[in-house]
Design a protein that fits this description.
This protein is α/β, with parallel strands linked by helices. The chain has two domains: 174 residues, Aspartate Aminotransferase, domain 1; 253 residues, Aspartate Aminotransferase, domain 2, CATH 3.40.640. The chain has 16 helices and 14 strands. Helix 4 runs parallel beside helix 5, helix 4 packs across helix 10 and helix 12 packs parallel to helix 16. The longest helix is centred in the last third of the chain and has 20 residues. The chain starts with 20 loop residues before the first helix and ends with a strand.
């Protein structure tokens, strides 16, 4: 449980408040037992997401003052373009306001109705954009990824046999690309190995398929490769990041994670024709291709954040090991969660945590709400609510993983914050039989976890 010390000093602080249990009971009831609907000011430690919740560096704040707010040809775009080319290796760059905008553009351009898109587990917005474009997601991740207790070091790997089965069933012409993610979010932040990317590239080339990368957490993934995969211990994270991307044809990216900013993303590609078409789409939905829905100052901060993420290995070691420290505290108390620990969050195994609650009563949603009441810590559900319903049957998907995600923002919380959060979660675990299931009082038609409302059952 040794804590890796922060490779930075704190120069600015933001006050946060502790509330009473009675206050939090009222707050979660008013929010319909959905932590997304809580007011930020009513949260003590916010582990809802690591998306855009990072603390920016002094150099990033200084970069904001150098924003070129020209509508066309901002110098900040060209700095961002050069940075992405250097760090990730892609030829062409289209900025977007965040990652899901890049997913939208890519899906519109590459997917036709009736297509199938295989991936190493789904992500919510990615799958929805694929479905809106007429495609069907096909899960091709290894089986170990669906077992929270399995200690496979690279649970984000593809099962190439599953990919081959899909090709045999529908043919390669109905597969527009393979959707590969680093540090797979829904699997618990689990990495993919270089060896598996080698295998994936060979498979794709054999069948004439593209590989498009969800590049959001590639820096974290590179650290796991450096730490766990033979032959990479003496390579820098920056070198490994470039190697990961070299196996792919392009990427979408939310810079609100690895990029250390509060807003921003991009679409990158090595394909000239796809790049030209993407620029046409970004003008329709985001803004001119040299700003993509972002202010010049946002692009300046993003470029600086990307450079900082790989400037040396000290930052990413601290970042991932801070998550590991948090997980070790829970492991010592026997709290069930996904292992090995991922790169950005600890994922509680809600089915093992609350075995008395049927999955149709959303144990992960109930657990996230109970953790807030007990501690003031905000987490989020990643289970039956997030998975949604089968459009043909109307039934919940009932995924094998029913998880509560406790996501660590970058450069924000200290060791004592995590120790407090762990202590509160352990308290909930010790009285877990008192937690009740939930049912919908309002269910949105898509991405229901964002705005759904619930009431307790029983």
């Amino acid at each position: 449980m040794k804590y890796v010390p922060e490779p930075f000093r704190i120069k600015t602080v933001e006050p946060i408040k502790m509330t009473t249990r009675e206050f939090r009971q009222d707050a979660i009831r008013e929010a319909g037992y959905n932590t997304f609907l809580l007011k930020s000011e009513d949260v003590y430690i916010d582990l809802l997401t690591d998306s855009g919740t990072n603390a920016m560096s002094d150099a990033q704040w200084a970069a904001l003052q150098l924003g070129d707010e020209a509508y066309a040809g901002s110098r900040n775009f060209y700095d961002l373009e050069r940075t992405i080319q250097e760090v990730y290796g892609y030829k062409h760059v289209v900025p977007t306001h965040q990652g899901r905008a890049a997913e939208h553009i890519m899906s519109r351009l590459l997917i036709k109705p009736g297509d199938f898109v295989p991936g190493n587990m789904y992500f919510t917005t990615t799958r929805l954009h694929q479905e809106l474009a007429g495609g069907t997601f096909n899960d091709a991740i290894i089986d170990e990824a669906h077992d929270p207790s399995c200690t496979h070091p690279f649970k984000g790997n593809f099962d190439v046999k599953k990919l081959q089965a899909l090709v045999d069933k529908v043919g390669p012409k109905r597969i527009p690309y393979i959707s590969a993610a680093t540090c797979v979010n829904m699997a618990g932040g689990q990495p993919i190995s270089i060896a598996n990317l080698h295998e994936l590239r060979a498979f794709a080339d054999k069948h004439g398929l593209k590989i498009m990368l969800d590049n959001t957490r590639t820096v974290e993934n590179a650290y796991f490769i450096q730490k766990r995969e033979a032959g990479f211990a003496n390579k820098s994270v920056k070198q490994i990041v470039r190697e990961i991307c070299s196996f792919t044809d392009g990427c979408t990216s939310s810079a609100k994670k690895d990029g250390l900013v509060n807003i921003g993303g991009f679409l990158a590609t090595n394909d000239e024709d796809f790049f030209v078409a993407s620029k046409e789409q970004v003008v329709i939905y985001e803004g001119l291709h040299t700003y993509g829905g972002l202010a010049g100052r946002d692009m300046a901060a993003m470029a600086q954040g990307i450079r900082e993420s790989v400037a040396n290995d000290d930052y990413i070691k601290y970042r991932v090991e801070q998550v590991n420290f948090f997980g070790d505290l829970l492991s010592a108390a026997g709290v069930p969660h996904v292992v090995p620990h991922g790169g950005h969050a600890i994922f509680l195994d809600a089915r093992a945590f609350l075995p008395h609650i049927d999955q149709e009563q959303f144990p992960a949603q109930a657990l996230a709400a109970e953790i807030y009441v007990e501690t003031g810590v905000r987490a989020m559900e990643r289970g039956n609510v997030s998975a949604g319903r089968n459009k043909e049957t109307g039934q919940n998907y009932r995924p094998k993983l029913e998880l509560v995600r406790l996501t660590i923002p970058r450069r924000v919380y200290t060791q004592s914050h995590l120790e407090y959060a762990a202590e509160g979660i352990i308290n909930v675990f010790q009285k877990r039989d008192c937690v009740k299931g939930l049912r919908f009082t309002f269910e949105p038609s898509a991405l229901r976890f964002f705005q759904a409302r619930f009431e307790t059952v029983g």
